[in-house]
Amino acid sequence: MATLQLLRHATLRLTLGDTTLLVDPMLAAPGGIPPIPNSPNDRRNPLVALPDAPLAHDALLVTHLHRDHLDDAARDQLPDGQPTLCQPADADELGDEGFDPRPVDGTAMLGDLTVTRTPARHGDGELAERMGPVSGFVLEAPGEPTVYHAGDTVPYEAVRETLDTHEPDVVVANAGAAQFVEGDPITMTPADVLTLREWTDATIVADHMDAINHCLATREDLTTALAEAGAREQVVVPADGGTVALD
Hints:
Strand content: 25-35%
CATH architecture: 4-Layer Sandwich
Oligomer: single chain
Low-confidence stretches: none
Number of strands: 14
Distance between the termini: 7 Å
Order of helices and strands: EEEEHEHEEEHEEHEHEHEE
Radius of gyration: 17 Å
């Protein structure tokens, strides 16, 4: 059965077909990471503990190398030589750190899993340029729902084009309205999740909330916005440790 378990923030266990991916592992204990620089508060990260849940997996998927998606604790705790799906820009660094990078330029295979890299934009304008390259990924396995992990992105035309091209059954949306002292949010806000809902009939699973100090929109903010819009059935907002059946 296809399942997605939210561990914390952007760290997921995704099972499709015969493959289980550990996505964007951030494994630090609470307070083990300094506050995000130039953010609106000085709380140390992560804000909450990792739930007591299994980390067993066949491969990693690292959408990009920001420390809330691959932290020092994960680098230290995960064994060397693991197959690691990634964007090409990150392959050399991951290889130098002992991972077995499997860069996805267009489409790649991992066992029975087809992985297609898709565009993403970590904010708008000059800020997005400074944030560096980020990617989304479409994941397909025979007889399983198609999953589009949009990555750390705001909704823009390339996201809509990805939805139209791949027609996913499930969309993972990194929400939380991550923001610096200046500039617009660099991940999806509650309003952006509602926009995403207008672009697709897929089930949307929203994560990336309540764990990092500059993610200012909470699960409560999102669920309130969804309730007001009558969108609760289409958008799932799991708690840390929660598992979503994707079939």
